[in-house]
Amino acid sequence: MTAERAHSRRGLYWAAVLLSLVLLVAGGIVAYLGYTATSGPDGVVRGYFAALQRADAGSALAFGDVPAGPHTLLTDTVLREQQKIAPIKQVEVVSVQHQGADKATVTVHYEIDFPAGPDQVTDQVPVVKRGSSWDLTRTAIPTSIDLTHALDRATIAGAAIPDGDTLLFPGAVPISFDTPFLELGAGAVTFATKAHVGVTVQVSAAGRSAVANGLSTALQGCISSGGK
Fold this sequence. Notes:
By secondary structure, this protein is α+β, with helices and mostly antiparallel strands. The chain is built from five helices and twelve strands.
């Protein structure tokens, strides 16, 4: 092997070593930033809501304790439906109120963007410190759904709306209808939800268009009939 070739190989070797070190440091920085983004009382709440926004039920539940109750609706599928009906947007931690060294309440503001207009929510999320990490004291909300209209046309995840308490993630109540002419008007689950959540139903844009077209057709029929 000539001296030039040996020198060239050594150069490539050290270049590869340097690249490996750069990638290792970069990976460490990314991991550290990921850790700091979800550490502390405010970070764990941001991480939780980010999991809700990307419809990752498993990650959301991992941010704390799951209350007792039916877990049937704590799935990616239902969470995706919640985000489809009215996505959670503009999440912002407002303040952190400590109660001693291992408890805190995080005030967070966000909007639930219903078709009729966004609900502005200011929520208070209790968290607790365990060892070196902070957890939500509950990652789902015990909720009883109160739907008084179009009950026979409404389902959740393809099944009948459950009677009594069930567990839901914060966000829109994930009710679907068997017609495109109806949609959820309002009905949101938050950490401040008490006992039950009332759900309203409204005519969708497709429904309003169908009504308008029907009236127009009927009117045209009347005009044509009257002209004969």
